[in-house]
Amino acid sequence: MSAIEFAANGVVYSSIIVLGSIGLAIIYSIAGFANFAHGDTMTVGAYAAFVAFGIIGGLGFGVLGLPIGFFLALLVGIAIAALVAIVTEKIVYKPLEIGSIGLLITSIGVAFVYRAMIQLGFGADANRFDIPAQRPIEELIPYGIRITSHDLAIVLSATVLVVAVHVLLQYTDLGRKMRAMADNPDLARASGIRTYRIKLWSWVLGAGLAGAGGGFLGLYNNLNPRMGFSVLLVIFAAVILGGIGSVYGAMLGGFLIGMVVEMTPLLSRVGIPIGVDYGPAVAFLIMVAVLLVRPTGIAGDGTAGGEGI
Amino acid sequence: MGQQAGRESEMSDRFDIGAYWEDFTPIERVLTAALGIVTLLLILFLGTGRLGPSYFLFLFGLGGMYALLSLGLNSQWGFTGLINFSVAAFFGIGAYGAALMTGSNSPIAGGFNPIFGLLIGLLLAGIIAVAIGIPTLRLRADYLAIATLGLAEVIRLFLQNERQWTNGSAGIRGIPSFFEGWPILGEFPRLMPGLEIGIIPGTAIVLETTFWRQLLNVSLMLVFLGAVFFILRRAQRSPWGRLQRTIRADEDLAKALGKNTYRYKMQAFVLGSLIMALAGVFYAHLNLFVNPGDLDPITTFYVWVAVILGGSGSNRGALLGGFVVVAIREGSRFANDIAFIPLDAAPLRLLLIGLLIVLVMRFRPQGLLPPQRELIWPSAVGNKAPSGPDKGVPQSDGGDPNE
């Protein structure tokens, strides 16, 4: 495989990681804790889309090799992930009277409950969307790029979602309130923003993006109960690389980390014998290196709190 | 886990039972009663032969192992407030250190005396703890959580993929028991005669070599556990331990007092990691087989459940939690026999652990046995129990007003 081919795969994988890390960064800066259930929220979205796709079916025509039913199922996955997050916030996180570290520990319990439920319902084995696999796009093969139209659909959809998040944050009332709350929750409340409502919206947004990322991850690899937990670490690495709490940093960090994970096999060509199994490990080592040199991450503003979206 | 009740009373510095019972908080009374019932049930099961004595000792050893892991985590999280999500990794380093030195199919060294395995396991754990501590201990607490979870994954991947050094997922077999090659103890299980005990006529309980071997293992575990428990208790009552609790309650305060908190956090991190590795060494010689599956992140969270359920910062809570976790782990194996709906044991266990974390954090964040008298020199308090000890949340119990 050529370097450009690894890079093309990297772009596809990065798109998924970016969706996950934006959601995590939003929740991190507004709900105020490192949400270890984020990976399993992705799994919830993926399985919800899987079930919905089984019910809706292909609906005949398709875009980029994907039946239109898949995109509808993905919307269902996003909605279910957001709904599950809201319910969790209402019945688990809201009544807690503990600091952010306590919330972090609780979120691990939440992650286990999600995963256990999915495993009880669907078993531990891998599932696949009932969509025929595609051959690589013919026109791109001469350039050394072998990606399928599904991969292209993932990248395009992720781009649309990222642009939508940008527009939401910068140009809408909700986005302005969210940025205000991420900056300074007390000041936001004092200026009349209903902070709890904004917090709920940030759960909807964060978990919805995670659900989308999970759906695409299920299309890219397969669905299994551990799928979300196994990318959680990569997503955390991306968020730390970008600067905790910074959404634009998370986009950049997610892109870089996704590329690194997929391009790890190239290291063996320069004399470092590391297989693709070590992709997450390399991502993690980069994260540690970033922490050593610049704890606030790429887009961090220099304050240790890492506030602001 | 019934032996817990016995240990409970060792904990006291005064042995006037009646007065001690008066001092108990309500939850301590309930727990003591519950432990008594569990002990009775265990005796009943053992006596009627429904629970094999060797298997019971194996489970008891496992419980002790989890208690040891919990003590290690407690000295990091409970006392200093360090979030370590790589318990399974340090446990695995200890286990693999011992296994690689002693196992019969070890690709590296194999066949050494288990003492070398113990030393190598602890040495490796110490080095890796320092290496991970340097970049992360200066940072906010949640960075440490993420970084340690990542570290655990790297170590698991390494053990799984580097077949030339670790045998990969095939694991390492043929690990001798810890006392193999020792003058008397090495031969003890084989020299002991097979005993038959008939408590109920017709159902004789046979005690054979396995039983004596497990008995030795349990004794080893009790030695490890006792040594760690008393070292920790001594350390945590010292000025060093007070400073650790100050760091947990308010690190800026400790800094303002002119303390190098980074250094103290590093000491606590290394100490806890060594205790976890010790538990790993014990596991290698208890199970006689290790593979990368032993480093699954779920092990880490079993230990977290044990610590927060027992009470962060409370060593006797950690002991209790360790045995409760083994009860959950082993109990869920029998779920298929009991439940009407066939449920898989693995997700059921995951569900129980998850629910337990959420429920403890919701309803009793300070745990069942929050730290009380054990953090204070006995001579520093009068005969009365401190008032209202079971109030407060984990974030503040380092700065207990009754110090």
Automatic annotation (TrEMBL), chain A:
MF terms in GO: L-isoleucine transmembrane transporter activity; L-leucine transmembrane transporter activity; L-phenylalanine transmembrane transporter activity; L-valine transmembrane transporter activity
**What GO terms fall under cellular component here?**
plasma membrane
Gene Ontology biological process terms in this record? D-alanine transmembrane transport; L-alanine transport; L-isoleucine import across plasma membrane
Q: Has UniProt tagged this entry with the keyword Cell membrane?
A: yes
* Keywords attached to this entry: Amino-acid transport, Cell inner membrane, Cell membrane, Membrane, Transmembrane, Transmembrane helix, Transport
Membrane topology listed for this record: Multi-pass membrane protein
Q: Where in the cell is it found?
A: Cell membrane
InterPro entries xref list: ABC_transp_permease, BCAA_transport_permease
Q: Do the record's keywords include GTP-binding?
A: no
Q: Show the stretches that span the lipid bilayer.
A: 12-37, 44-64, 70-88, 100-118, 152-171, 200-220, 232-258, 270-293
One Pfam family from the record: BPD_transp_2
Q: Which family does it belong to?
A: Belongs to the binding-protein-dependent transport system permease family. LivHM subfamily.
Q: What is this protein called?
A: Branched-chain amino acid ABC transporter permease
Q: Which organism is it from?
A: Natronosalvus hydrolyticus
